[in-house]
Design a protein that fits this description.
77% helix; 288 residues
């Protein structure tokens, strides 16, 4: 009996050692994914630093200039529809620096933010490479195109944030005036963080259909539940829109929220398609 216990103990120890080796092997694989991601972000940061004049003047300072694309389109729409006050004629605030290393940190932070935005598709690719070996062939087949669709949604969301949400927010906040005695002197940190938060925030919000697809695959989300929760989803979307847009302007809030309502309906369609495929596979399994 004692020899049997000894053999069982040895087998159990072997299983533990094997599991530990598997765990450390996964850590090693994850480490290399992280290293490659950091290298990619560093390369994009160097690229942004090389062309920093364009990054600063055209991208960062773009929403403050009256010749920005969105403001020009607003003026054209205002002229065509005879809407008084729709054309943006002034953005009354100055950008200042209040710290000794402020402009240096501005260059570093803006390059890192640009690198994060440009490198986001590659980060998704590294995530996919890390998760892919743990999926079955069927799961890999159904998740094919994850990087492509997520990248497209993120780009659309980021562009929507930069060209719609950012200029509307900047224009509204800049023209809020409680007294002529108060002059808007905005720090460069506040200006940069606002643009980055709105742009990247919209890009991430637009990934909702991908999240719903994953949750539906895991069986944690169903189209019936999403349809029944439309009213609650509407409230949550409006709250998210209010958080993303730092304005009290109802037009800006609705402009931001409208695409999220569309994304929610698209997510219901995605979840319904996943459920339909699951039902077909179950039917084929029971009929075989």
């Amino acid at each position: 009996m004692s020899s049997k216990k000894l053999i069982d103990a040895i087998k159990e120890k072997g299983k533990n050692i094997e599991a530990e080796m598997s765990f450390f092997e996964h850590l090693e694989v994850l480490r290399w994914h992280i290293i490659r991601s950091v290298i990619a972000i560093a390369l994009f940061a160097i690229l942004s630093f090389t062309f920093y004049d364009f990054v600063f003047n055209q991208i960062i300072m773009g929403p403050k200039n009256l010749d920005f694309w969105t403001y020009r389109m607003m003026c054209k729409v205002g002229d065509l529809m005879n809407l008084d006050g729709f054309c943006v004629e002034r953005i009354p605030f100055n950008i200042i620096n209040t710290e000794l290393a402020g402009q240096f940190m501005l260059q570093i932070n803006s390059c890192l933010l640009m690198a994060l935005a440009l490198g986001f598709p590659y980060l998704l690719f590294e995530v996919w490479l890390f998760v892919k070996p743990a999926l079955t062939d069927v799961e890999q087949q159904s998740a094919r195109g994850f990087v492509f669709y997520a990248t497209v949604l993120f780009i659309i969301g980021a562009l929507f944030g930069y060209y719609i949400v950012v200029p509307l927010s900047v224009n509204f906040l800049a023209n809020v005036s409680l007294s002529q005695e108060i002059t808007n002197q905005i720090t460069i940190d506040s200006y940069l963080s606002t643009i980055a938060t709105l742009t990247l925030g919209c890009g991430i919000v637009f990934l909702l259909p991908i999240l719903i697809f994953i949750l539906s695959k895991l069986g944690l989300m169903t189209p019936q539940f999403m349809r029944a929760s439309r009213r609650y989803a509407a409230v949550i979307i409006l709250i998210i829109g209010a958080i993303i847009t730092p304005t009290a302007d109802i037009i800006t809030l609705l402009t931001v929220s409208a695409p999220m309502f569309i994304l929610y309906e698209l997510s219901i369609m995605v979840s319904a398609n996943v459920k339909k495929q699951k039902d077909l596979k179950e039917k084929e399994f029971y009929n075989s």
